[in-house]
Amino acid sequence: MGALIAWVEPVLLGLRAWWGRSAAIRHLDALATVLHARGYRCVARYRARPRLAVIGPRDRARAVVAVHAAPGGTWGYHEPSHHYLCPCGDAEGAAELVDHILKRRMFTASW
């Protein structure tokens, strides 16, 4: 039974992400608003899978953020390599983490 659940859960999460596309776009728009206030440029790409490209000052660093369905009916911000950032209800916290990621990429010698 455990093997069946391990196989079915990712399939169900994928279906929920496909059906909940408008929710994912709404969460990315909230994150884009907060990041724009911090001085980052955001490019929304909502064609196949909703993603938000965040570009640092003077185009020195870039990051891509996506929204994935999570178990328990929640949503979470992720990087494309599926690194979990934080739950979607906390756009300020996600913006702080994206800010930290971009600063690390811009100023690699100081870390």
Task: Briefly summarize what is shown.
The chain is α+β, with helices and mostly antiparallel strands and 111 residues long. The protein contains three helices and five strands, in the order ααβββββα. Helix 2 (21-37) packs across helix 3 (91-106).
Structural summary, described in words:
With 111 residues, the protein is α+β, with helices and mostly antiparallel strands. The chain is built from three helices and five strands; from the N terminus they run ααβββββα. The protein has a five-stranded antiparallel beta sheet. The longest helix is centred in the N-terminal third of the chain and has 18 residues, at 2-19. It is elongated, with a radius of gyration of 15 Å. It starts with a helix and ends in a 5-residue tail after the last helix. The model has no long low-confidence stretch (mean pLDDT 82).
Order of helices and strands: HHEEEEEH
Output the structural class. Answer: alpha+beta
Q: Quick check: average pLDDT?
A: 82
How big is the Rg? 15 Å
- Which strand order does the major sheet show? 1-2-3-4-5
Give the distance, in angstroms, between the N- and C-terminal Cα atoms.
46 Å
Number of strands: 5
General shape = elongated
**Beta-strand share of residues:** 25-35%
pLDDT under 50 segments (min length 5)? none
Proportion of helical residues: 40-55%
As for the number of domains, it is: 1
Tell me the major beta sheet: 5 strands, antiparallel
**How many helix segments?**
3
